[in-house]
Amino acid sequence: MILLINICNEKLHELEFVKPIEDILNKNNIEFKTKHYSKIIKNDLKSDKIIICGTSLKDNDFLKNLKYFEWLRNFNKSVLGICGGSHIIGLILGNKLKKKKEIGLKEINIKKEFLEIKGKRKVYHLHNLQVLPETFNHQNFYATLFHPEVRNKKLIVNFCNL
């Protein structure tokens, strides 16, 4: 069971940042449940893996509520953070937030294999901030600054199949 964590403050944003991931998981017959970060209870953290979804450019309320993510400090199951989710992972790990605006398609070169993906890829960016690099893997934490639910959907499936 995959736990999808919704960090969106607005219901409309969920359609753009959470629902596409739900659709990918449904299409691949991957069992999941979705919860807003403010509603997570201890029992939810028994999920096999966790995906922290992204949100829109101006929706940064989650950054004021990092206390809801303190459990990440001692969590030993695989976690994938997408965009805002990567900011959360990076901040919990002690990294600093900086301004970096990118919107649209960009070609990146993934030099070290990341969730079975390597080499040049076109990725979709939509962010004003950055904490971690384009792709990040440390222990059980995986993160992307870009949105694989838009392009590179296989990355999400690969994470779920770890």
Task: List the SSEs and their pairings.
Blueprint: E1 2-6, H1 11-17, H2 19-27, E2 32-36, E3 49-52, E4 79-82, H3 84-92, E5 98-114, E6 117-130, E7 135-138, E8 141-144, H4 154-160
Parallel strand pairs: 1-2, 1-3, 3-4, 4-8
Antiparallel strand pairs: 5-6, 7-8
Explain what this protein looks like in three dimensions:
There is one protein chain. Helices cover 20% and strands 35% of the residues. The protein has helices at 11-17, 19-27, 84-92, 154-160, and strands at residues 2-6, 32-36, 49-52, 79-82, 98-114, 117-130, 135-138, 141-144. The chain has a six-stranded mixed β-sheet. A two-stranded antiparallel ribbon has the order 5-6. The model has no long low-confidence stretch (mean pLDDT 95).
The major pleated sheet works out as: 6 strands, mixed
Structural class: alpha/beta
- Average pLDDT score: 95
Computed CA radius of gyration, to the nearest angstrom: 14 Å
Uncertain regions: pLDDT < 50 for 5+ in a row?
none
Number of helices: 4
Q: Termini separation (Å)?
A: 13 Å
| Secondary-structure element series | EHHEEEHEEEEH
* Number of beta-strand segments: 8
Order of strands, main sheet, comes to 2-1-3-4-8-7
